Amino acid sequence: MIVVLAVLATCAAGLLVAEAVEVTRWWNGCRILDRLDHDPTPRTPPPIATRLLRDAGVDGDARLYLQIWIGTLVLSSVATSVVAGGALVFVVAAIGPPAALVAARGRGDRLRAAQLPVALDVVAASLRGGVALTTAIGDAADVDGRLGHEFRSMARHALDGMPLDVVVGRWARNSEPDTALAGAALTM
């Protein structure tokens, strides 16, 4: 048990040092880049974390979720060193969130499929109101979740000058058969 606690305490110390180095780099980079009047580019999270969160239907910043998870691991490892019962807390904190994401795999696709009729109803209502298709697609961007982001991106590309049939066609080709059918209807 003492060996396990020592290993966990070492891991916690390593995580604390790594997080301290990251915060120091960020702080120094922000100060320097503020002087240069330039925005710092944040590091992106690992692709597997982004993919797992997206497949589970969790919207938000993957980097923030990873920082919260690492912070939880550090705190639970400190609890492990203080109390012997903290080992259970550490195991749950280490395995729980990834296991929940794996268990929720495919939820994002199901949520997106459920939002597609709502988004198409918004487009149809806007078109019946007499607005242009580009504006109607922009109105559908208010739908929550991943589909709202897709409609927002389509509206932005169309407003930037890309032909609307190309924008909708690209959106329809990169998704499920339901989306291909909806894309065909929108291009007509």
Describe the structure.
The protein has 188 residues and is mainly alpha-helical. Helices cover 78% and strands 0% of the residues. Helix 8 (164-173) packs antiparallel against helix 9 (177-187). The protein is elongated, with a radius of gyration of 23 Å. The N and C termini lie far apart (68 Å). The relative contact order is 0.08.
Summarize the entry for a quick read.
With 188 residues, this protein is an all-alpha fold. 78% of the residues lie in helices and 0% in strands. The termini are far apart.
SSE diagram, text form:
Elements: H1 2-36, H2 47-55, H3 62-82, H4 86-103, H5 107-128, H6 133-139, H7 146-159, H8 164-173, H9 177-187
Helix pairs in contact: 1-3, 3-4, 5-6, 6-7, 7-8, 8-9
- Please give the alpha-carbon distance between the first and last residues: 68 Å
Assembly classification: single chain
Major sheet summary line: none
**Structural Rg:** 23 Å
Shape: elongated
Helix-strand category: mainly alpha
Note poorly predicted spans: none
Quick tags:
single chain, 188 residues, mainly alpha, 9 helices
